[in-house]
Structures are given as C-alpha cells and as structure tokens.
Design brief:
mainly beta, 59% strand, elongated
Length: 117
Amino acid sequence: VQLQASGGGLVQAGGSLRLSCAASGSIFSIGAMGWYRQAPGKQRELVAGITSGGRTNYADSVKGRFTVSRDNAKNTVYLQMNSLKPEDTAVYYCNAEVKDSDWMHYWGKGTQVTVSS
C-alpha cells in the first residue's frame, strides 16, 4: 500500500492550498484518514481526520480555516486550507488505516507547505 500526497507549495499569508493524498495497492478497505504536520523543531501533530463515515475532527489551530474531505471511490483524502498563516508552515503528511489482510496504518512521504508573511 502506498499513499501519494500532492498539492504543497509556497503561498502568501491569507492564501489557500489544497492537498490530496491517494492510496493505492492491495486495499480491501480504508478506515480513518487524516493529515498531520511537522514544523522544524516540533513534534508531528494531527491537523485533521475523517472517518470512513465522514465524521471529522480538527486541531483547534485550524478550525474554521481547514476542511478535510474524502472520496471513497478514489481512495483519496483532501485538505482544503484557507486563510493560511505563517505558522501553518510545515511538512504535511497523510495517514490512513488500511485493511489488506489486517488493519495497518500507512504514511505518505509528506509535502512541504510554506506560508510567507
């Protein structure tokens, strides 16, 4: 199973970006999917998650600005990021619970998001 993330880049404060992460490989079912981020010198933190049924949760720092969604037919999770701030600068990683023969967590390689002031 592989998770391929895309959509990162450089944007000015107040701008928007949309991240995508597609799962591929031997997949029987996908459970929760989500996005994490890690800024230099900081621990990786949960940004947003979404269950297979569409229930979402967000870090307090991004509530009202970021929206997580998924397309189950495409095995893809999205993160729409609006009103970006310099403190959102980080490497963003997608994560998914995937069932092949058993449930396992998988990580994408990460995509850089840089927000300039």
